[in-house]
Amino acid sequence: MQFTGDGQILEQKKRGVVNPYPPLYSFNFRGIPMNFFFLIPSSTIRTSTPKKIKSVIGGQKRVDVFSRIMLNLCRWKDRCDAKLVVVLYLSHPEENLTFTIPLDSISSPIENELEATEFMIHLLNSPDELGITIEKQDFSTLLSNLASDCNFFYLTSSGEDISQLDEDSMKSKNLCFILGSQMDLTHTQEKNLSKFNPTLISVGDREYLASHVVSIINHYLFTKFK
Ligand SMILES: C[S@@+](CC[C@H](N)C(=O)[O-])C[C@H]1O[C@@H](n2cnc3c(N)ncnc32)[C@H](O)[C@@H]1O
Q1: How far apart are CA 145 and CA 150, in angstroms?
Q2: Is residue 125 a contact partner of residue 84, using CB atoms and an 8 Å limit?
Q3: What's the pLDDT tens digit per position in 68-85?
Q4: What is the per-residue pLDDT across 179-223, written as a single tens digit (0 to 9) for each?
Q5: How many independent structural domains does the chain possess?
Q6: What is the whole-number distance in angstroms between the Cα of residue 184 and the centre of ligand 1?
Q7: Which of 13, 84, 144, 174 is the S-S candidate for 35 at Cβ 3.0 to 4.6 Å?
Q8: Residue 105 is part of which domain span?
Q9: What pLDDT does residue 213 have?
Q10: pTM of this prediction?
Q11: Does residue 105 form part of some domain?
Q12: Is residue 179 within 6 Å of ligand 1 at its C-beta?
């Protein structure tokens, strides 16, 4: 298609020639929708500190990193029948808390940064109101629990290209993508993770924001397996 810049793209979208929304992709194993987990530890986010919109956006605890991850994953969740689940792990020694957030259980819309930030504040201040499961556990217990029905993929720029995520690895188990938030995993976390023999995958030589990495993973899965 030759691009003339005279409004043809907008016109085609209006007429439905260019679909602005990608079709629904199917990820299931023997008819059961797969779960895609995104496990992201943070050592800085604390439940104890008061959180307001102003202190969260650009604040040192970097709750905003998670707001963006939530926003980006919510945009993908309606495009496939896999269940997307965010596992936020607060690794500060006084926390050791896991928040397991199935995105289809969120009733309030997350369509922009403000809504994503409000969700995060609500989640950290009063998770019970949102019906989110919280467990106090160390990182290795969390990994053991997930490993029972997940294949692990550790996101690192020094891993193998994401294209090694092929049909064989998609079969038989749910997928769990593990990545750092504003910081990489610690040595201890990596050591714990290594016991589960994760596949190391890279989305390129450069370092990307965690919220970008989750989008790249979804983009890859949805274009490869559509
Ligand atoms: C913002 S980065 C972490 C901080 C970064 N390593 C730094 O200090 O500059 C967030 C996480 O996204 C993942 N990540 C970033 N770039 C990546 C890449 N090119 N390939 C795979 N994973 C990547 C890693 O898990 C990383 O810990």
Answers
A1: 9
A2: no
A3: 999 999 998 877 778 899
A4: 999 899 999 999 999 999 999 999 999 999 999 999 999 999 888
A5: 1
A6: 6
A7: 174
A8: 31-224
A9: 97
A10: 0.89
A11: yes
A12: yes
> What is the 206 CA–ligand 1 centroid distance (Å)?
8
> Is residue 83 in a domain?
yes
pLDDT at 18 over 80: no
Any domain includes 13: no
Taking the C-alpha atoms of residue 56 and residue 123, their distance in angstroms, rounded to an integer, is 13
Indicate the top mutation candidate among 64, 153, 179, 185 to test ligand 1's pocket, ranked by most ligand atoms within 8 A of CB.
179
Tell me, what CATH number does 157's domain have?
3.40.1280.10
